[in-house]
UniProtKB/TrEMBL annotation:
Entry GO MF terms: ent-kaurenoic acid monooxygenase activity; heme binding; iron ion binding
Name of the protein: Uncharacterized protein
Record key words, sorted: Heme, Iron, Membrane, Metal-binding, Monooxygenase, Oxidoreductase, Transmembrane, Transmembrane helix
Transmembrane listed as a keyword: yes
Gene Ontology annotations of biological process type: brassinosteroid biosynthetic process; brassinosteroid homeostasis; gibberellin biosynthetic process; sterol metabolic process
Length: 493
């Protein structure tokens, strides 16, 4: 009798404790809702379904937990499982109340309606990439800066000039790697693409300068998607120090170049820095130093990270699918064979003949989705599919969900370049470089680099990985943990 009474008492205490814990959990989960939704009034009823997460950190804990696991898609899957497949969910991400959009119609509207949405990048991204870079400036300033920098980066004449340099670096790099034995393929690719972008922007091939800059960019890149906690030991703190070092190096380069140009008034443009220093808008206004440096920081970072990673994945996919490798190799051999006698190197004419290789690159961009998402902020209350996105709320356009949607791309987890045969993606269904007026300004240059590398790799080389089943890392970008350790094998002709 006494024992039963004691057991019953313990059960009551446990029940009370569980009840208290549930109440505390409910209260904590209601904090963000109360802070950010209470002033919306009747509009609250039209918010998308979702979960605002915990106070201060919101959904970031579950986001980081998913992306540090072997199943990063579990983060979005949990929203779909709990709140349905509507594709629009409320959340609290990167320190702000946010709406996650994962379906083409919503993505298209957010990316194209400049009167309703403006850039909404997290504090860490804005501070690290720069307050006068493309990620932070207004629509008007973005339009002006994009117009000034478009031709020197993606213009026909510029790409024709860059091709010669890119090809020479690719050919020598592949030859060198084939003689080195075991290498980290991704690390070597990132070094290669950084050399290329440094030459295009700063005309430098100094290994000491490039090594110092590349090291700082690695630290900076880890902080771009981090919470803006500027305390020693946190990633953002280390990234801010890296940006400070980068700015100092680039400021010195800008000052030195400006002195040279003043001393030599007839100096011709040799690289992107010359173009940035020389360029003027319709009112004769030049870019100031902060605009130039932030533009350089952005381009130098994006210009080697994306190209290096996507090139690695395209090589891996081709090497692991012999049937696609064979088709791409035959195309490369046909293009090389049909080049005019005496022509040295590829031209844009040959590049445009790489039709199958273009499908390989697009399929890699789709499958890998190097840029997981982009950020916007609602400039006013916006109605999308019957839901209200409140003014001031951040919108996360989740590219990966679109690219892996089986209704758009059957068997989306499979690498299949042939799916692009006669396929013209509908607006909002293929977003590797974003879309709208803020489409990535270096997209053509990136695809050119990737194509030139793959062309020469297919002609003469193979990749032999040491750990094909190596576990993955998903932040800041998807890659094998061993950076694709292996060997580049030269093929006998």
């Amino acid at each position: 009798m006494g024992f039963d009474h004691e057991v019953g008492g313990i059960g009551l205490v446990v029940g009370i404790l569980l009840g208290v814990m549930l109440i505390v959990k409910w209260l904590l989960k209601s904090v963000n809702v109360w802070i950010y939704e209470r002033h919306l009034g009747s509009k609250r009823a039209y918010l998308p379904p979702g979960d605002m997460g915990w106070p201060l950190i919101g959904n970031m804990w579950s986001f980081l937990r998913a992306f540090k696991s072997s199943n990063p898609d579990s983060f979005i899957s949990s929203f779909v499982h709990r709140f349905g497949p509507g594709g629009i969910y409320k959340s609290f991400m990167f320190g702000s109340p946010s709406i996650i959009v994962t379906v083409p119609e919503a993505c298209r509207r957010v990316l194209f309606e400049d009167d309703a949405f403006k850039p909404g990048w997290p504090t860490a991204t804005r501070e690290l990439i720069g307050r006068k870079s493309f990620v932070s400036i207004s629509y008007e300033d973005h339009k002006r800066l994009r117009k000034l920098t478009a031709a020197p980066v993606n213009g026909h004449e510029a790409l024709s000039i860059y091709m010669q340099y890119i090809e020479s670096k690719v050919v020598s790099a592949l030859e060198k790697w084939s003689q080195m034995g075991q290498i980290e393929f991704l690390t070597q690719l990132r070094n290669l693409t950084f050399q290329i972008i440094m030459h295009i922007f700063l005309s430098t091939e100094s290994e000491d300068v490039m090594e110092a800059l590349e090291k700082e960019y690695t630290k900076l890149n880890y902080g771009v998607r981090a919470l803006a906690i500027n305390i020693p030991g946190f990633v953002y703190h280390s990234a801010l120090k890296a940006r400070k070092n980068l700015v100092a190096i680039l400021q010195a380069a800008v000052c030195e170049r400006r002195k040279k140009r003043e001393a030599n008034q007839g100096m011709t443009k040799t690289d992107m820095l010359d173009a940035l220093l020389e360029t003027q808008d319709e009112n004769g206004k030049n870019l100031d130093d902060e605009e130039i440096i932030d533009t350089l920081v952005m381009y130098l970072n994006a210009g080697h990270e994306s190209s290096g990673h996507v090139t690695m994945w395209a090589t891996i996919f081709l090497q692991s699918h012999p049937e696609y490798f064979k088709i791409a190799k035959e195309e490369a051999e046909r293009i090389a064979k049909n080049m005019p006698p005496g022509q040295k190197g590829l031209t844009l004419k040959e590049y445009r003949q790489m039709e199958y290789l273009s499908k390989v690159i697009d399929e890699t961009l789709r499958l890998v989705t190097f840029s997981l998402m982009t950020f916007r902020e609602a400039k006013k209350d916006v109605d999308i599919k019957g839901y209200i996105i409140p003014k001031g709320w951040r919108v996360l356009v989740w590219f990966k969900s679109v690219h892996h949607n089986p209704e758009i791309y059957p068997q989306p987890k499979e690498f299949n370049p042939s799916r692009w045969d006669n396929l013209v993606p509908k607006v909002g269904t293929f977003l590797p470089f974003g879309a709208g007026t803020r489409l990535c300004p270096g997209n053509d240059l990136a695809k050119l680099e990737i194509a030139i590398f793959l062309h020469h790799f297919l002609l003469n080389y193979q990749l032999e990985r040491d750990n094909p089943a190596c576990p993955m890392m998903h932040l800041p970008h998807p890659r094998p943990k061993d950076n694709c350790l292996g060997r580049i094998i030269k093929v006998s002709k």
